[in-house]
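Input record, target 12 of the design panel.
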């Protein structure tokens, strides 16, 4: 990227980031929440490592990817070394990719079955790493966007809490298409509270994206996963 091009992209990202941060601050003010209790995780899928670097220089601390085949090479780009970023994996995950994802991800959001818990624990143990894990709950009962049925969440949480090499951090959800996000996230908040009673360390609620982050803040989300509102619309799948 040329210097002028890079400066233009930096301006674009800075202004989009600022408007999302404004939205988060207003939502927190309306909900009577401390903005420091909400972490903005910027979803950088389909965008280059150079964008991640610019975002880090603009103060972003947490970034997320959703496909191992893209994230592995991108996140190991030397231009990202030493930026102190916390790396999140938010996509559907096959057990056979557990070792790869564990090698770079600090937080894994979409854990929805026992087989994956076992695979992640084994991979973390072998690699000497200790990722945080969130249980993804499916709010519409369809398996398409991943997630466990709500009644299976307690046993998954128990399995993660008993696994020696991974840490249970909380719950994650995507609002179903067409659903009222406040109602969807209120359900997630109830599950998060129940989980916390059993596992006091599981304090995270990962919910809210570009279109529904205000509802997520109102319902108590601690981690927002925002992509297109900051990076722009994603290029079509190649
Ligand atoms: C892409 C993605 C996001 C970000 O979505 P936007 O609508 O672009 O903000 C959030 N969560 C997950 C799991 C994603 O895959």
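The sequence produced for target 12 reads:
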């Amino acid at each position: 990227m040329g210097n002028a091009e890079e400066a233009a992209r930096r301006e674009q990202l800075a202004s989009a980031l600022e408007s999302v941060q404004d939205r988060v601050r207003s939502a927190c003010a309306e909900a009577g929440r401390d903005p420091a209790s909400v972490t903005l995780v910027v979803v950088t899928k389909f965008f280059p490592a150079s964008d991640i670097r610019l975002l880090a220089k603009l103060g972003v601390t947490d970034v997320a990817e959703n496909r191992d085949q893209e994230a592995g090479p991108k996140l190991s780009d030397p231009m990202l070394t030493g930026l102190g970023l916390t790396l999140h994996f938010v996509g559907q995950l096959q057990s056979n990719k557990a070792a790869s994802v564990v090698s770079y991800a600090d937080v894994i959001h979409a854990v929805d079955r026992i087989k994956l818990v076992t695979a992640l624990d084994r991979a973390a143990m072998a690699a000497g790493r200790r990722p945080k894990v969130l249980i993804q709950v499916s709010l519409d009962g369809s398996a398409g966007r991943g997630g466990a049925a709500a009644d299976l969440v307690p046993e998954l949480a128990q399995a993660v809490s008993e696994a020696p090499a991974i840490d249970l951090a909380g719950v994650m959800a995507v609002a179903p298409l067409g659903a009222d996000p406040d109602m969807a996230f209120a359900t997630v908040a109830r599950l998060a509270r129940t989980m916390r009673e059993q596992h006091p360390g599981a304090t995270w609620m990962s919910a809210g994206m570009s279109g529904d982050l205000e509802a997520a803040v109102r319902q108590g989300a601690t981690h927002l996963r925002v992509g297109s509102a900051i990076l722009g619309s994603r290029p079509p799948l190649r």
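Residues 43, 45, 66, 90-91, 174, 209-211, 225-229 surround pyridoxal-5'-phosphate (CB under 6 Å).
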